[in-house]
Fold these 2 entries.
Entry 1:
Amino acid sequence: MRISHSHLRRPSKSAWLLIGTGLLCVLLLLVLPLILIVVSAFSSGWKLFVRNLLDADMLAAIRLTLWVALLTVPVNLVFGTLTAWCVTRFEFFGKKLLLALVDTPYAISPVVAGLCYLLLYGNQGWLGSWLDAHGIQVMFAWPGIVLVTIFVTSPYVARELIPLMQVQGSQEEEAAVLLGAGGWTLFRRITLPNIQWALIYGTVLTTARAVGEFGSVAVVSGSIRGQTNTLALQVQLLQQDYNAVGAFTASLLLACIALLTLFLKVLLEYRQRKALKV
Amino acid sequence: MNGSHSVLPGFRLSLGLGVLYLSLIVLLPATTLVLQASQIRWSELVFYFTDPRLLAAIRVTFLAAICASLSNAVLGLLLAWIISRYEFPGRRFVDTLIDLPFALPTAVAGLTLSALFAKNGWIGQWLAPLGFEVSYGFVGIVLAMTFTSLPFVVRTLQPVIEDLAPEYEEAAECLGATRWQIFYRIILPPLMPALSIGSALALVRSLGEFGAVIFIAGNKPFETEVVSLMIFTYIGEYAYEAASAVAFFLLLTSLLILLIVQLLQRRYRARGAA
């Protein structure tokens, strides 16, 4: 039962106490860290910031991180959409199992995820020994990083799409099919416009996580400087080198991506709401 | 209805590719871990799980994760309540910023929190004279876990609070209920399902948290090591068997908690329908 309207009210005097406490927590836990990152990255001036940024290892880390994201996102975009289509448009045996499988990466600690892939593709692993014999190195090289990143980000697109596609139902699509639309036309003309904003948001989430993934990548990358070091691993390496400014410079890049993600989220949710109303 | 009876196209294609993709990406690696763990002999297992260093890590991890989930339950309830109930300047900003812990890479979160709460840090310098050391200690672990799992409770509670009719609270107030009674008797009961689900999700996330924790924990054996770090250390020592055993244990615990959540959800729903 949903009784009313908007419950947003003007706070009473005692409510201001709650709001104040909440705002203080947000300030201490969420706002101050962001300010600290900016201040620390620039604490030794612009010149050092730029030098840290243009450092060869840093540039290599940025390149690798972008490369990993570039390979990860399309894979999860395509297969996430296919999975969402499958579970929201059809009834079939084992659907619950498939959904559980979609959610599994959420329940697995990043380090455990890395270990799973290490056991499978590492030197002593089942696939690993075969790959090794054919001269293909997956672990401690970029393919391994891409694989674990695909694993940890695999739920995002599907999880964004499934609730939305369930709410929207399939009448429009069924009508289109009865009017003679083919599969691709149906998807491009009917489904895609309905889900586009959620799809973009799922992509944004995937990208953000792919760029910042740490635990699982730390297990499979081997952290070779300038070669298999992603930006998130670079943060740790620089901190271990007692180069705090450098670590915060890398952090600032990652924090900017995080803030961009939040901004896009607000924008895309607004668009999606408008699209649903129309 | 079977999928092939629907008028919509693409059932076989999407099911086939979806199953193939999930099998390769999720099922196969997870199965590898389970098989690897199942090959370990009992005597070895006993040997691993009686190591006092591992036992200490398990204790620290569970204690910290439980503390983090409880503080998340309180803080999350507060934040979800003010965001979905009151109109105040900066409400939208706070609402957006709640997702920051999910968007910010865990390594960045760990690095920043440890600097912020270190003895000479912006916040730490005020806590240090009070004898309160956060970074490189147990409290730091709790803080990092609380940070990374903050959005779970807030986001599961928000829709429920929005659906909560203020009329009941007003009625209770007219009938002379005290503020505490209103909270405890009127507001809390309908929020309990979402609150427990959000806290359980936060618990699962905290148990496995690695990136944020290792930056702030100090990682002293027997004192501030967490389970995920132990697994990482085993991997570094090529002790894959020990790593698999502990990883399997962590995986089972997480799945068990999620299963309990599912059962709780079903019970709440059944009661709600009755």
Entry 2:
Amino acid sequence: MSAPPPAGGSVPARALTYVDAERTLALRTDYERKETIFERPPELSSEDLGLVEHWQARGRPHRLPVGESVEGYGVFTFPYGPVTMGVPESGAFDIRTYGERVLELVPEVGYKSRRIASAVVGRVPADALLRVERFAGNFSASHAAAFLGAVEVANGIRVPEEELWTRALAQELQRVYNHVRLIARVAEAASQNVGLAQAHALAEESLRLMARTFGHRWAFGAFAPGNRFRRLGPDDRRALGERLRAYDREFASLWELFLGSRTFIDRIQSTALVSRADAIRWGAVGPTLRASGVAWDDRLRAPSPPYTDLFVPLAQGSEGDALARVLVREEEVRSSLLLVEQMLDRWTSVRGGEYVPRPPVEPGRGIVRLEAPSGDLVYDVRLADGRVAALGVRTPSQVNWPLFALGMRGAVFTDFHFALESFGLAFADTDG
Amino acid sequence: MSSWVERAWKKGIVTTSYPAEPATEEEAPPSGRAPQVADCSSFAAFAAAAESHCPTRAIGASGLDQGKCIRCSRCLPSGFRAAAELEAASGGRSSLLWIDGVPPKSTAAPAPLAPIGRSITVFLMDAGSCNACNLEVLALANPYYDAHRLGISFTNSPRHADVLVVVGVPTAGLVEPLKRTYEAMPSPKAVLAVGACAIDGGIFENTPGLDSTVRSVVPVDLFVSGCPPPPLAVLDGILRLAGRDRTRSGGSP
Amino acid sequence: MTNIAGVLLLVSVIGLFAGAPLAILSRRLGYAVTLVASGLLVATAILVLAYGPVTAISWSGVIAEPESMRLDGLSAFFALTAGIVWIGTSAFSLDYDHHDTPWLAVAYSLTLGSIAIVLTSTNFLVFLAGWEAMTLASYWMILEATGRPARTFSAAFVFLAFGEGSSLLVALAIAAFYSLSGGFAMTAITVAGPVTSLVFVAALLGFGLKMGIAPFHMSEWLPIAHSSAPSNASAVLSSTLTLAGVYGLFRLLTLLPEGPSWWGGLLLIIGAISALLGALFAAVSEHAKGLPAYSTIENNGLILVALGVALIARAEDVPTLFAFALFAAFFQALAHAVTKATLFLCAGYIERSTGTVDLNRVRGRPKGADAAASGAILVASLSLAAGPPLAGFVSEWMILEALFQSFRFSVPALQFLGLLAGAAVALAAGLVVVAMVKFLGFTVLWKPVATDRTPRRWGLSTPIAALATVIVALGVLSPWILQFLTPAASTFAGYSLTAPVSGLLAVPNGWSIVSGSPFGILSPPALAIALVLGLVPPLIYFAFGGPRKERPTPVWSSGRAPSAAEETYTSFGYSTGMRIMLRGLLGTREIRQRAGPAIAAEVATPEAYNVDLEVLDVFKVVYDSLVRAALWFADGLKRAVMPGRIGRYLAYILVIVLIVMVYTALAL
């Protein structure tokens, strides 16, 4: 299928490479040694260059360099997108097929590029944050937290621990929303319409929880640099805690029903397989990585407060199919609810505490990674005179597209939506 | 099988009674509604204080442009009261410009889909959004809003659509597809621009490389302001295109 | 009247042959003469069906056997069918044949003449001679493929090999027949015995080979699909050469005494399998000529099924069903020959106007192609897909109707067999719909390609349109056609039959086809009238300018530029679902090969692959391995026996001499 990993045994930087406005920086996770290495790679392998070119092409539609080229009698390209309601975002796919079966799928991204990385340059972090939040609305809490964290590292600012906890709370709520919505989307693809309505309703409820807690359904504007964040009063916390307990019960009983629904389970079992080797080699992140049997979660392996103080359950699968990915997400809904519960229990203990970020890799530069709902999100911010000088972002969607393309090889057309939804990819998150 | 029924029974009816009843705060939180000045007489003073905070220049001496406002609430300390009526969020482009912070007196919004009336098919096109608007529009299908009870359904092809709902700021790659999508729709048709980005670009206005607005590419009939607008605001916009909104029918669609 | 008919018959057969020498002078003259001769043959056949058998000439054969050129009810039916087809193909050839040499026209004329000999002979020796001439002449026709691609020779050779196999088996059947009747004349034998079964089986295999039925269906598809035989040749091969096989089988069954019911059972099994295989492969064929060729296998299978039901019904003594199934077989033979000829001519038209026979590349008729040919493609493929009220629909209905009545058999096994065959035939009918929708969809219904306008070719489209009209007429007028065919069925039965036609409800007498007494009823004329009447109100509405509720929009290709939509679904893709679903039956396998150098030289160059999804005719594999085994054996024998050493050869001579001496000594 694909070329063997390069000699030397190390994991190629490949998918973990991103390019900022000026230079290349690699972030490598060695899953075997459980280490994260920030480094400038001595030289890029030829394999990496394809992706480097890809990220340099940001701002216009382009095909991801993930494909094999397939020719043959009767083989043709089935163009899908960029405008289709089947995928409720704008992005395209070129499907090489001889009918029915997908021989090769090449995602075409960049349609939605709003040039955020260059639009924030020269702005103060507070104004930059408004754009960063809108990188991907459904992952806004993670983007905001990563950006703010990087700014704080770059500036060496001490952060009230309560603020970190509030950010984490927003992230976990958003994780719940995204995972539940993903389950709803899979149910929709499977025409499990009762389940769809139920899951859809639960997703809406999580949005309402977010609005009640943070004043905004998507947590836009909930945070700002400089200790200006939305503080949760004891009543807020009590109300949230009660609602979450009810939410947990309802989700658990809904999932019970889903597990018994063959129309739901059968369509995702063995669909879009991603092997452990492929997941590591292509640098998969998030639930996609964990569903393929790699125990890696930034909240555990590269934790920052409050996760350092909390019990973080690890959701892990082994099969690497769509079912495994959905199962991992289902467990993470529970674990997120558990995390929120822990946080609410111990909220008062952190009041007044301050967190001192570790020193930056170089002055004025902060790199932060955290576990967004779809996986490892990296922000690399450089500041000059209190303004953003350069921004590098590497989102989980950017990394996971090739895995989707890989998983779709040999699948049939009707697997498309099950596969796509199971990866939890977003074009907004990819293009920025 | 029976357990699904049991669950559905236990869950009960969660669907909103909008538009028969006004939207509750739960359904349309203040952050989703148009900001309004507490005291109209002193708008100039508030505008002067808030102008520098406003990241999208929605507040100016002449008035408050709801179409540009991204509801960031930075102007709140300057004396804005957060919540206007939900229905105040949508209208023609000019009716979104609140001179002196006051909503314009009942502007007769056009209802191009009045001939189609009771069954409206919606096609959602993402011209470059952050996904929040997409998800808010699609949330209309969930049991809490259930747009289908009002005859509104989503379609997967513009060829079957009556309303084109556009979200996001048109990016370089999507200007042409947006044009093609509009052309692929049969007449009579209407375009609903949803969210600040789709109106004037929102927070992305004046970003180099994002030179188009939705209305410079396709003729827009109605704008729904907000960042993102809550689902009911979008619903109101769609109903308004068909002449079935709350303000016109007095609450009973 | 008889005299006139006799003269007509003689003139027409001579005319068919006369086309050959005249074609050397001028191709068009040759085809014109065969056209006229075919017309005369049709006229003769009509006279015979209306007024009774006719003998043109009689003479005494080489071994003092009486021989004559004669048409009776049975052969008149086949002559009529063949004649109609030949009128169309000959007229088509006038404009179609653009070869540099006249040899295609010569071979064509000889093929037609020798088929006529087969149909008119009353002596098995002459029959066999005609049969052999027919095989050789059509072999020559296949060799005349345009441009002669390399595989033409091997394909034609396969055809010849199967043809000779057929001749051998037919000869065996005739020899067995001779042992019973003591002569080569076509006279009925009355004594039943095991040898009659031998005659039947040998005849079934021999004639079946020509019909292209399983397991010999390769003889049908391979020459046409692999050699791209000329379209007029393909039409003649697929419609009338296989028809000669049908005739042979019918003729022998007429002469043999009533057989046991397993004869019919055997026909039913072979027919149903052929129908299913043919339909299956038609559905996954991308070749504009291969697809109709596979469909021929299906249709000939259906003829055997109908005949099988008839034979079982006769053996089980259900005379009504016997008559109905027999009429179904005849009508199927007629409908198929005309329809298939039309479709092959259409394929020729497509080839001429688009320059390809690959449905993946045909991509719609060229702009400006005339409506007559498009309409003909529509009619012919709808008829093969059993669309009412066309000929193919009537025959398909009759055959299924006959199978439904297998409950009338007394033996449960036969009832069950009828059920199974019914299921197979119904499945085949469904698969053929897939095939025909593909043929129709990727040729006529596709958006016209904006390539350079091809000039209208009335010379090609007029004969096609005429044949298509015949298809419609056959379907709509089927009750009267059936009545007209009564002499043919009566000749087969040996006693006077009446056509299964009557009236019911408001439909006038003679307008409906009735199976059983009354089991199922269908009135194609009434159906046609109803269909036309249904069209009248909307036509009036539009004629008087009623408002059209249309909301026209341009083509939507999910937001991409229209040029991106150029590369569209291929006809291969259309049937890949079937290839994958039925991979067990079709032997589908994917062959994936790395294209180019193993290691991509360029940075980040994706790996290139060639993918082929192949379907496999299991029987071809068997034949191939048989051929390999034969070659291996011959090679081994050659090495063992003829090592090239003089000593061994001398030893052989010595042994032979010794054997001869010993034999002579013993004989003395």
